[in-house]
Amino acid sequence: MDFTDFLQQEINKSKPQGGKKFVRRADVEAERKAAYEAEQKALEEKRRAKAAAKRKAEEDATEENRQREEKRRKLAEESRQRREEEEAEEEQTRRKRLGLPELPRGKTEPEEEPLEEGEDVPDEELDERLREIGQPVRLFGEGHAARVRRYRKVTTVVTDGPIPTTLRLVEEKDMKVEGTVPKDKKGKEWLFRQLGSYFTLVLAEYERAMEKEKRDTTTSRNAYKNMVECRENMKPLFRKMEKGDLPDSIVAPVVQIVKAAQERRYVDANDGYLTLSIGKAAWPIGVTMVGIHERSAREKLHNGERGHVMGDEITRKYLQSIKRCLTFAQVRWPPTDLRQLMG
Questions:
Q1: CB neighbour list of residue 150: distance below 8 Å, 6 or more residues apart
Q2: N or C: which end of the chain has fewer CB within 10 A?
Q3: How much is the average pLDDT of 272-289?
Q4: Alpha-carbon distance 324 to 320, whole Å?
Q5: Per-residue DSSP letter, 86
Q6: What's the pTM value of the predicted model, to 2 decimals?
Q7: Higher pLDDT residue, 1 or 158?
Q8: β-sheet bridge partners, residue 303
Q9: 96-115 residue pLDDT tens
Q10: Which residue has the higher pLDDT, 334 or 101?
Q11: DSSP states of 220-233 as a string?
């Protein structure tokens, strides 16, 4: 083979196969698109297979949890039934030992919540009271405690107002307090009705005045907020007066405050509030002891009357609400003597 033949062979190798001298761009693009679609289809099938496997695993886990919960529920139900049967057997044995009639199978005596101290009423008296108000003496399956609670619920009258209360409010002409705390129970009940009526009157006027205010400024919004807080913080005081368990150490100063406020002596009422809240105990100022010698009148630091403002949070709040009622009362019912205006 000479050089000419070798050159001709190389030229033939460089020519495209099939006799084509060139390839169209559209054909190349079509081949690339077909390869891309095939690749995407394979990826999509792979994703679907993976999602189906995940879904099946979740369904299997859900079914397994359901079966486990069902098994646990059945075990708990069986345990409860066995416990009830054992309790029923014990109850039947107890009743047989005490000579009581047997209970029907599957039924036990309902347990009643005990009554609070001072709430109980003897059976004979309770029967008469229920007949007087036209109520059935006994309902089916009703025990003594349930009868007492039904009687209390029917006979308890809740008075509407800023603070709903079971205290029977008195008329305005009967609100004036005497200034002393009665010793007997009926006298204290009447006093609590007077105090509740007076504070209800003040709170109602306070609420009515704040409703007329335009709450489009910060000052008016704060004033309305203070009224709402005062009303809410007075509720524990009303609850204590309803139960009659307000201590005399608070009742006596409150009576003095209300008496002074009703007579429009607001400075005296404020003095009574300060005595009630802070007390008359001496406050230590400076050094109270140096060396072995005590300062004069040091023993007075622990012998004075203590206030209630540090007692607990609830007491502190309704004492502050009483002060707010005084502040509003001197605006609503101004004193005839300007020297009785609080600062």
A1: 135, 139, 142
A2: C
A3: 69
A4: 6
A5: H
A6: 0.55
A7: 158
A8: none
A9: 776 666 666 554 444 556 66
A10: 334
A11: HHHHHHHHHHHHHH
